[in-house]
Specification:
0% helix; 52% strand; mainly beta; seven-stranded mixed beta sheet; six-stranded mixed beta sheet
Length: 892
């Protein structure tokens, strides 16, 4: 027998039939009984694996004995769900697998049998709905078959209850992170404290102790100042309880410990800081001189507050500050008070400064009505008169001229009604010498005389832009003079910089620029060569130019200037461009001018302006062009060009116009091979000579790759196809591997070509190009076609070869980490499965639709997420043939 549970059937029974197990010694053990009103009977029984002898009937009338063997591996039912932690609801559904089809599953609770499930279906699954409303917080369930000698293991379940909040007490005042605690939690459960009616606002959490006590040990958010309500819930094994009853209380704003005291004016004090937006800030005077007015209360706006008082008597004060907010019940919730001291004294003079003139003026800010004194150290002498403070300002000019001064120390203090400011405020006065005056630079050959004025008996120094050396001047009283022994370079600017040293300080510099000039040079014309032929647009070149000079050409035949003047930047070589010259002989010379001085004219030069041959810009010497290509070049604007091909008696091209920019082009079609061409042009009745012969090659045009598409995934076996010129040969190459040739194909008459490749390199991005060849000449490479090579080959292990399967068909196999998809064997665009994840342990999935009956194959390809070669997809893999059809299960 293949089942531990089965039925013994028979006929010709009386009203009741019993089935017995016969033990050695003819001992009978009753297994079950059945009522047989119609003479047919059936008794369900259970037997463990083993050999048995059975009989049926009544003890007085037994049937013949039956010998059977039971070898089933079927077990009893198991509880698979729910998890050990359940919510606090009244009903739960339990269920599982491992049950015997056709039998009921009995469910046992804390007090015994609860009930039985429906008959178990063929897949052995079962479920039953249980009322746990009256069960304790921790209870057990167990299941088994009717008549079976075993049941499942006992499963313990815990109901998640709602915790209680004890602190804060209802209505009390606490801080933004005041203590929160309670009871009623499961040991080691996580208890969360949330804002009432807004459970996404989490205040904090803690872990319950062994007796269910809990407190918040990790705050996540502050509780906002003001009336506030919270709830609590616990989480056991990932299952949250219901929230507790809300606890309402008051949250006080923080104490105002971050306080700033400033003096906007000498008569006012400003208190400011940060606070809770919307709160009211109050400052009270705890102690201090009489007649001090309380600072006005102020509201916190955008997190900031400030309040100002004026005309407080001088003295020491103790102040207290709080911030408070409404409790929405005609009362206030106040922060803890913060107490701080304030000393109000006659302030020191401030913002003190002085002017850097030789008789300085001192100025600053002070207290209205006070007298400011400026004293030497010790306070016995006063270098400037006393000053009165008006409108908060004072100033006093020194009693006499100080001149250049270095770090002279003065002390400043203010006095009012018998009081004085706390300190003599020190001021260090440094007055640098002014820049000396440069009177004039008097020319004296290549070393001019320089003179000026300075501070009496100062040290005067000069430096020049052509050398870093410092030169002392001769000083007499307040005058100085100097002449350098080293001559200056001519025709370039020079700068003299002069400083004076007095009172241990160097003055700012004074400077003047001057130039010493040399005689003008006679220019020399070096190009064009004498008696040469040139075009209408040409360049005249020469030597012995002078930087800064203006060079001008002259037409000696007419005596008029030729072209525009050219200002020279460098000494030596120079050039001037001429355009639109007449077709005729010319005689020219050149002259340069600098600083209103003219050079001698150059020697005269003779040349003739003619129509020059055109030039080729495409093709280049020994370059390549396809069969049909454009010849391009440069020539005389509005002229006409004709092109000749070696071996032809007629021009290859004629009457090709030159555009206004001096460019010409025309298309030609020539057979593959080496070619020699030359050109000539005509313009306004003029005809040029032939250009120099130019050699180039006519080669096939680059082919076009049609498939695979750009970035298309391909497998190791791939067909590359495209278009080209009939009878050319196309070679497909792999870029980056010394342009390895992978295969060749002729171009057919319909202009198509196709090459089938078997790629052996690792997967990843591959760059392919195609090259056409004909009669020993090769085209340029086609544009690179990048594709993604999938070299890795996954496997399809299920269905195995020749296996019969039924819908929904299950697929399994091996691969690398990524995502794959099963497709039809005859149409990969027809998806047989949704995306299936692939891991290092394999992949599995089921068909999303019924498959055709009979023999089938499937295909599989996957993406790759960790390929060492950089590949992102695999190759296609085909399964073995398998059979799809309805297969009826057979019983043993």
């Amino acid at each position: 027998m293949n089942y531990n549970y089965f039925s013994v059937k028979g006929r010709d029974g009386s009203l009741w039939v019993d089935v017995y197990k016969v033990l050695p010694g003819e001992n009978l053990v009753k297994l079950g009984g059945s009522v047989t009103p119609d003479g047919l009977w059936q008794v369900p029984i259970y037997l463990p694996n083993g050999a048995y002898v059975l009989c049926a009937g009544l003890e007085s009338n037994m049937s013949k004995r039956l010998t059977i063997s039971v070898d089933s591996a079927v077990n009893g039912p198991y509880i698979d769900y729910p998890d050990s932690t359940v919510g606090n609801s009244q009903w739960i559904t339990i269920g599982g697998t491992g049950a015997t089809p056709g039998y009921r599953v009995q469910v046992y609770g804390p007090s015994g049998l609860i009930g039985s499930s429906d008959f178990v279906p063929a897949n052995g699954t079962w479920n039953y709905r249980v009322d746990i409303g009256k069960f304790p917080a921790s209870f057990t369930l167990q299941v088994g078959h009717i008549g079976a000698p075993f049941t499942s293991d006992q499963c313990t379940f815990i109901k998640v209850t709602t915790p209680n909040i004890l602190i804060p007490v209802q209505g009390e005042v606490t801080n933004v992170r005041g203590p929160i605690s309670g009871t009623g939690a499961v040991a080691n459960a996580i208890v969360e404290v949330l804002k009432d009616l807004e459970h996404s606002y989490k205040i904090g959490e803690g872990t319950a102790g062994p007796q269910g006590q809990w407190s918040v040990t990790r705050f996540i958010r502050d509780m906002p100042p003001g009336p506030f309500s919270i709830v609590a819930r616990q989480i056991v094994s990932g299952v949250p309880s219901d929230v507790s009853t809300a606890r309402s209380f008051k949250v006080r704003p923080p104490a105002l410990t971050a306080l700033t005291i400033s003096h906007p004016t000498v008569t006012s004090l400003k208190f400011s800081g940060t606070g809770h937006t919307g709160a009211t800030v109050e400052i009270t005077i705890v102690s201090g001189p009489p007649n001090g007015t309380t600072p006005p209360t102020v509201q916190v706006v955008a997190g900031r507050w400030e309040t100002t008082v004026t005309n407080w008597p001088f003295g020491s004060y103790i102040l207290s500050v709080i911030q408070k907010i409404s409790d929405n019940a005609n009362g206030w919730i106040e922060s803890q008070p913060y107490t701080f001291p304030v000393n109000r004294v006659l302030p020191d003079p401030s913002d003190i400064k002085f002017t850097t003139e030789y008789r300085p003026t001192f100025s600053g800010k002070g207290y209205n009505g006070a007298t400011v004194k400026i004293a030497d150290p010790g306070g016995s002498t006063f270098p400037a008169p006393n000053a009165s403070v008006s409108n908060g300002l004072w100033s006093s000019r020194a009693s006499q001229e100080w001149g250049p001064t270095f770090e002279r120390d003065v002390h400043i203090r203010q006095f009012l009604d018998g009081q004085m400011s706390p300190n003599w405020v020190p001021l260090i006065v440094t007055i640098p010498p002014l820049a000396p005056v440069i009177g004039k630079v008097e020319e004296d050959g290549l070393s001019p005389k320089i003179s000026g004025t300075c501070w009496s008996d100062a040290v005067v120094e000069l430096t020049f832009s052509d050398a870093p050396t410092k030169h002392p001047a001769t000083v007499t009283g307040t005058s100085w003079t100097f002449q350098r022994g080293t001559l200056f370079a001519p025709d370039v600017p020079h700068t003299v910089t002069v400083t004076q040293i007095a009172a241990e300080q160097t003055s700012p510099p004074a400077s003047v620029t001057f130039t010493v000039y040399t005689p003008m040079l006679k220019p020399v014309i070096t190009k064009p060569a004498p008696d040469s032929e040139v075009g209408r647009d040409m360049t005249v070149e020469g030597q012995d130019g002078m930087a800064g000079a203006t060079m001008q050409l002259r037409d000696a035949q007419s005596g008029r200037d030729l072209g525009s003047p050219k200002t020279l930047i460098d000494n030596g070589e120079w050039l001037i461009e001429l355009t639109d010259l007449d077709f005729r002989p010319y005689t020219i010379d050149a002259q340069q001018t600098c600083n209103e001085r003219e050079s001698e004219r150059s020697d005269m030069l003779d040349f003739e302006v003619v129509l020059l041959p055109p030039v080729f810009t495409q093709p280049t010497e020994n370059g390549d062009l396809p069969r049909t290509a454009t010849l391009e070049g440069e020539g005389m604007p509005d002229g006409f060009v004709e092109v000749w091909l070696e071996g032809n008696s007629e021009p290859l091209l004629s009457g090709v116009p030159v555009d206004e920019y001096g460019r010409w082009k025309a298309e030609v079609t020539l057979p593959v091979g080496a070619k020699i061409i030359w050109a000539r042009q005509t313009f306004d009745g003029q005809k040029s000579k032939d250009s120099s012969p130019l050699s180039y090659n006519v080669v096939p045009a680059a082919p076009f790759i049609e498939t695979p598409a750009l970035d298309e995934p391909i497998g190791r076996r791939v067909v590359i196809s495209g278009f080209g010129v009939p009878r050319d040969t196309v070679t497909v190459k792999l870029v980056g591997a010394a342009s390895t040739a992978l295969g060749r194909s002729p171009v057919l008459e319909d202009r198509t070509w196709s090459v089938t490749l078997m790629l052996g390199q690792p997967g990843g991005r591959c760059d392919l190009v195609a090259v056409a060849s004909c009669d020993g000449f090769e085209s340029a490479d086609s544009p690179v076609r990048s594709v993604m090579l999938g070299a890795f080959l996954p496997s399809i292990d299920v269905p195995a070869a020749g296996r019969w399967v039924s819908d929904p068909v299950r697929f399994e196999g091996q691969g690398k980490p990524g995502v794959g998809q099963v497709t039809s064997w005859f149409n990969p665009d027809q998806k047989w499965s949704s995306d299936v994840p692939v891991s290092s342990s394999g992949w599995q999935g089921s068909a999303a639709q019924p498959l055709p009956d009979g023999g089938n194959w499937c295909r599989f390809r996957q993406t790759l997420t960790d390929s060492e070669e950089g590949a992102t997809v695999s190759d296609w893999v085909d399964s073995e043939r398998f059979e799809v059809g309805s297969v009826s299960p057979t019983k043993g």
